[in-house]
Amino acid sequence: MSKAIGMIEFKTTATGITAADAMVKTSEVEIVEAQTVCPGKYIAIITGDLSAVKAAVDAAVTTYEDKCIDSFVLGNPHESLFPAMYGTTQIEGISALGILETYDAASIIEAADQAAKTAIVDVIELRIAKGMCGKSYMLLTGEVSAVEASIEKAKNLVASKGMYLDSSVIAHPDQRMIDSIL
């Protein structure tokens, strides 16, 4: 049995809450986060054994397919995801800064997991549709080549879903810029 996380993103709060309730009734999973995000969409993130998370997400998406924006299930998510989501990541120095922005909430978590598993990078922040009109972004750091490879891999993943908005890599960002965003 492996640990997993899953997420659903719905067009409306009413359907999102109903779907999240269905997920926890379907399988032995825990809700990590469930809330309304901009612009009135609803997200629910769950965790548990891979098979339970998959069953819960599949049940919610199948039942409420017409209102589902996106969903995912990640087996063995990278350990940096949760600190980045909740703003508890501690970074000592930034050699390069990678930024990737998406049109939705779910794909940014998948992108961050992919980026963190591609090269030796630290995911600094995941902003999931809060105060961004439904868009999301991630910040990551590491050596320039590692950040470039990670951003490229994440970009390709979200582009294949039609959710890629923009990205960039800044080699040796100025400390004043770092201080303003972290």
From TrEMBL:
<dbReference type="InterPro" id="IPR044872">
    <property type="entry name" value="CcmK/CsoS1_BMC"/>
</dbReference>
<dbReference type="Pfam" id="PF00936">
    <property type="entry name" value="BMC"/>
</dbReference>
<keyword id="KW-1283">Bacterial microcompartment</keyword>
<dbReference type="InterPro" id="IPR050575">
    <property type="entry name" value="BMC_shell"/>
</dbReference>
<protein>
    <submittedName>
        <fullName>BMC domain-containing protein</fullName>
    </submittedName>
</protein>
<feature type="domain" description="BMC">
    <location>
        <begin position="96"/>
        <end position="182"/>
    </location>
</feature>
<dbReference type="InterPro" id="IPR000249">
    <property type="entry name" value="BMC_dom"/>
</dbReference>
<dbReference type="InterPro" id="IPR011238">
    <property type="entry name" value="Micro_shell_prot_PduT"/>
</dbReference>
<feature type="domain" description="BMC">
    <location>
        <begin position="4"/>
        <end position="86"/>
    </location>
</feature>
<dbReference type="InterPro" id="IPR037233">
    <property type="entry name" value="CcmK-like_sf"/>
</dbReference>
<comment type="similarity">
    <text>Belongs to the bacterial microcompartments protein family.</text>
</comment>
